[in-house]
Amino acid sequence: MGQARAHQLLASLAAIYLILGVTQHVTGNLTDDLEIMWGNAKFITDSSGQQAIALALDRSTSSAFRSKKTCQFCRVDIEIKLVPGNSAGTVTTFYMITENPWQFHDEIDIEFLGNSSGQPYTMHTNMYARGQGGREKQYKFDFDPTQDYHKYTIIWNKDWILFLVDDKLYRQIKNNQIYGAPYPYYYPMRVYATIWNADDWATQGGRVKTDWSQAPFTAYFRNYRAISCDLYQASPMCLPGSGWFDQQLDESRKQQLAQVDSSNKIYDYCTDSKRYKNGLPKECGVN
């Protein structure tokens, strides 16, 4: 009984610490955590009075920012308001990547594929480990991601990669290295966000091109938060009960995942048998 109460107390303290830490971080200065990389990127105050970063794309240049710190096993949240109107051909990204040579790099991706006016965005997710990628799944939204900010989350721990939208689970990637499947495990990553032109493939397979008369195309980012929980981290935010850093999926999250798979998923590499002449990737057959 004493041990159970101790665990409960630790979990409660961790939850309080997490709430306080999140509040402090989200209302902090973006320039403490993020830095402009190139192009038409700038820190601004948005219409609600909050600090944000505007990434703009025109015919001459893309734009990007990145985190000042790397992390190995972490939760990263950011709020994004995507390009409105005719965004066909554009891609807005939020991703994590190692600084290894490209042929051995690890990467966890969320890419937002633009579309013609009135047509929905596609959220394209992917993962690379030691240079091996091709783990794409794509989703549509139940809302217009251009009308307001929405929160997008990547959680990466030693067992899972999780993709969330407004705290709703959209995708999981399990660490199946024991079956020979690639998984990013050994190296820290840095967070990036970019906007760029990809009209050779992004919208309807490249059939719809970017309309440069609509430029500049601008996406907005705010309320960035990164919590690192590496294998040796002692932070209260990394204790059992404080997050997903060492947990399996509970029933509520499993139900969310089933609902998204049924209503929002539009592509899954594990069901694309025509793509793989020698059979589906190993992890596709692992339950």
Automatic annotation (TrEMBL):
Signal sequence residues: 1-21
Nucleotide-binding recorded as keyword: no
UniProt PTM comment: Contains at least one intrachain disulfide bond essential for its enzymatic activity.
A GO BP annotation: xyloglucan metabolic process
Limits of the GH16 domain: 15-221
One GO MF term attached to the UniProt entry: xyloglucan:xyloglucosyl transferase activity
Residues bearing glycans: 115
Keywords: Apoplast, Cell wall, Cell wall biogenesis/degradation, Disulfide bond, Glycoprotein, Glycosidase, Hydrolase, Secreted, Signal, Transferase
EC class name: transferase
Xref: InterPro entries: Beta-glucanase-like (IPR000757), Beta-glucanase/XTH (IPR044791), ConA-like_dom_sf (IPR013320), GH16_AS (IPR008263), XET_C (IPR010713), XTH (IPR016455)
Residues forming the catalytic site: 107, 111
Major place of residence: secreted
Compartments where located: Secreted, Cell wall; Secreted, Extracellular space, Apoplast
Function: Catalyzes xyloglucan endohydrolysis (XEH) and/or endotransglycosylation (XET). Cleaves and religates xyloglucan polymers, an essential constituent of the primary cell wall, and thereby participates in cell wall construction of growing tissues.
Name of the protein: Xyloglucan endotransglucosylase/hydrolase
Lineage: Eukaryota, Viridiplantae, Streptophyta, Embryophyta, Tracheophyta
